[in-house]
Amino acid sequence: DGGITQSPKYLFRKEGQNVTLSCEQNLNHDAMYWYRQDPGQGLRLIYYSQIVNDFQKGDIAEGYSVSREKKESFPLTVTSAQKNPTAFYLCASKPRSGTGGGEKLFFGSGTQLSVL
Amino acid sequence: GQQVMQIPQYQHVQEGEDFTTYCNSSTTLSNIQWYKQRPGGHPVFLIQLVKSGEVKKQKRLTFQFGEAKKNSSLHITATQTTDVGTYFCAVTSMTTDSWGKLQFGAGTQVVVTP
Predict the structure, then answer these.
(1) Per-residue b or e along A36-69, where b marks 16 or more CB atoms closer than 10 Å to that residue's CB
(2) What is the pLDDT of residues A46-101, one digit of tens each?
(3) Closest partner CB to B101 (pick from A58, A104, A108)
(4) Taking CB atoms and an 8 Å limit, are B42 and A108 in contact across chains?
């Protein structure tokens, strides 16, 4: 099946620890995104990447880091600098404009991160 | 910066009733998308509006883009229990890269009473 796979579904972080959330897609999409979702606040953009080996900060990038070494993969690291990491994290992707896929985002099933 | 407001934040609907949720932007939009997120799930794309005054329908859902391209509405007729979830608008401003940052509203959480 084609799609976006996020893992793990649930993740617990100890204070001072870095954790990495996985996002893999087999849709051959160029652009990938990380959003954070808190109750009542919608989705806020953390980082996005339009092409391999390139990425840009979103609105709330502080305390997070990403890499885009492969087209299929866009892992997100939540560092110890992120003091309030408890949230639902969503990865998304979309094809380049003009390929017939439109501009819509395809989302993974999300990772719930909690602090111990 | 760009502000995207969705109202209401919460909507309690009796099954069979109609309701409307609104999305308002402080800037002119290139396009607007609507997504639905079921409880415990992830957002799923519903539709995209691009043209000023555009109206699109999907069964009981009617989407409209304002003439000034600063607001949009989603109207659901004869609400069913399957309509439960949170509806988000997501916008791309005229001033930003068309496939860069997509900004989401806070969403309208819909609860349906049988």
Answers:
(1) bbeeeebbbbbbbbbeeeebeebeebeebbbebe
(2) 999 989 999 999 989 999 999 999 999 999 999 999 989 999 999 999 987 654 44
(3) A58
(4) yes
